[in-house]
Amino acid sequence: MRRNSRLSVVLAALLFATSAGIATEVAAKGGAQLLPKSSLYTKVSTASSKDEIKAICAEIVARQDASAVGQTDASHLYMHGMIMGVSCLKVDYFKALVLARESGDAFTLKAALTYIRDRAAGGNAKAIRALEKYEKAYD
Questions:
Q1: Dihedral, CA atoms, 33, 34, 40, 41, nearest 10 degrees?
Q2: pLDDT tens for residues 38-50?
């Protein structure tokens, strides 16, 4: 349990780090994947206002098909529906899985599948339906 908590802290720090130096140091210690510089999540900081975060959410959705990084950003957003506690999108687990797959990034797909499978195992009906639909479409 303690290891999962530490991993969550490392991943959260990487996701929201605004300084490349801090993110690199944390990643080197934790072995996690860094955000690409073109990721819109790099624009988010703890000082971001609610309106700024909502604007970033809108930009992520608008760019979801522009590149692999855009698909990865959108996949994450569709999984959680929020950034730093600011709700900006309705959660859509199936869309998150499809975007993760289309991004071509195995790490993103594995993370999305793990997260959504955990939700499904906990009885989340949306996650269960999304996994069934995804497996039917891609198996």
A1: 80
A2: 788 888 888 889 9
Q: How far is 104 from 85, CA to CA, in rounded Å?
A: 28
* Two tokens, residue 58: 């809108």
Q: What is the pLDDT of residues 14-36, one digit of tens each?
A: 444 333 333 434 444 444 556 67
Q: Which of 46, 100, 101, 109 is nearest to 73 (CA)?
A: 100
Residue that has been written with the tokens 């998150």 in this structure = 96
CA-based Rg of the chain, rounded to a whole angstrom?
A: 15
Report the distance separating Cα 118 and Cα 139, nearest Å: 20
Rounded alpha-carbon distances, angstroms, from residue 76 to 2, 6, 11, 15, 25: 24, 20, 13, 11, 23
d(CA 26, CA 10): 7
Classify residue 11 as exposed, middle or buried by CB count within 10 Å of its CB (0-12, 13-18, 19+). middle
Q: SS3 for 87?
A: strand
The residues near 65 (Cβ < 8 Å, ≥ 6 apart) are 71
With a pLDDT cut of 70, the percent of the chain lying above it is 75
pLDDT at 39: 83
Structure tokens at 49: 């206002």
